[in-house]
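Section handout 9: paired folding examples.
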Amino acid sequence: MLTEKNSLRVCEKGHEYYKSSDCPSCPTCDKENKPKSGFLSKLSSPARNALVHEGIDTLQKLSEYTEKEILKIHGIGPASLPTMRTLLKEKGLSFKE
């Protein structure tokens, strides 16, 4: 559903998309670049992109952060935390206290 706030964007690969935020992430590129496996494949595009941008690409690296630190990263919201907690727990890890 498009509103007046959405503007047409074109990414460097030529994909056209509408977005209301300043986030330059192209939805088509995000789908093409989504990992097929690993913990990042279980997260939403904004959360995945935010973690990768911060250099957090393994569960071990994720476990070095507190939940509050992770929530301060632009692109990660509280809805991502339960998934991250579950993925960490499956590997015997947890967020830093």
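Moving on to protein 2 of 2.
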Amino acid sequence: MTDAHADEAVAAEDGDRLAGVPDEFQRLWTPHRMAYINAGRESMREQCPFCEAPKHPDPERLIVARGETAFVLLNLFPYNSGHLLVCPYRHIATYDQATPDEVAEIGALTQTGMRVLREVSRCDGFNLGMNQGAVAGAGVDAHLHQHIVPRWSSDANFFPIIAKTKALPQLLGEVREAVAHAWPR
């Protein structure tokens, strides 16, 4: 075999490993998600998203309910459909900085959020939590927020575990509309 033919054989062999060539992995391409990811990165560099959200119309910032000291909005990067965040209006970083009124309202809004999600999405359970500080996993570590993540017995499958992919069956706007509509007034 000549050197030219050897180079062609290597190039053809390498082509089998290029992206787009079928292999044993299945891929769920969601390029539309980059708009959310890039928007989130840019806005967080300039301003706190949780301080900024209440200044805008509820549908625009995915707010589903407003209280006196705290509000509820959908997570822009949800773990599951209906993933809510409960945030105080005040820009505080940790739970121990919250006033008794803020603690009480965060708790009450969390309970209402659970009831509404149970009604709207018929979920089987919840994960509740606050990641306090970047080292603890908070994406927005400067502004306190509590997660309410609805869970279903069928939502733990191979996608997130093996493929590091989450399939979300509803658009954020649709979820926001359903939750806001069902929120008691």
